[in-house]
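Sample entry (208 residues):
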Amino acid sequence: MPRRTKEEAEQTRLALIKSALQLFSEKGVAHTTLMDISRAAGVTKGAFYWHFKNKLEVLEAITQEYALPLDEAAQQKLETLTPSPANLIDAIAFYFETLEQSEALIAFQEVILFKCEYTDEFSALLKRDKDDLEKARDTFAAFMGDMDEAHWLGPRGDAQHIEAVSQALLNALVGALLHWLTTRQGILSQTVTQTVRLILRGGGLKVD
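Predicted structure, serialized as tokens:
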């Protein structure tokens, strides 16, 4: 395939992804048709099928295009930091600051949390979301587990305690995101930072 044709094909694929994300966030996944996406992208339905089989594949492409890069950037940032409460707060704040500054990422979160029915063909997405949340919890736990005694108010937490704090932290972050997406009150990253501080302090860590 000539290079120009490959570039045009990629432009079409991106147009379909962007159009699908916008429509999913406005109408919901179930109420958006493949024809809706094709028309919004300015291409034929045949062009849609050249790139994607169904809406599930489009959602997966949206995840790869928008959500995955942020997840990887946050993970890489955490891996470069010395384990401490302050650095954990910074890494989480980075994630949410990036999210709230991107209309595409906001739209993606709205689709995943509010506009997608996890039945039939989309049930695999629910499992992946569950796996992603568990991975985030385990990442928090590993980072806290590597914090030395100096970062704890009392005796260093054992594995069970750290896991409990990590789960509480994850639950609080999801709750903060849901509330912000619903109300758009306040600055998300500031709310998250305050939340993380409270959870870590309550879990026995020294937080400035």
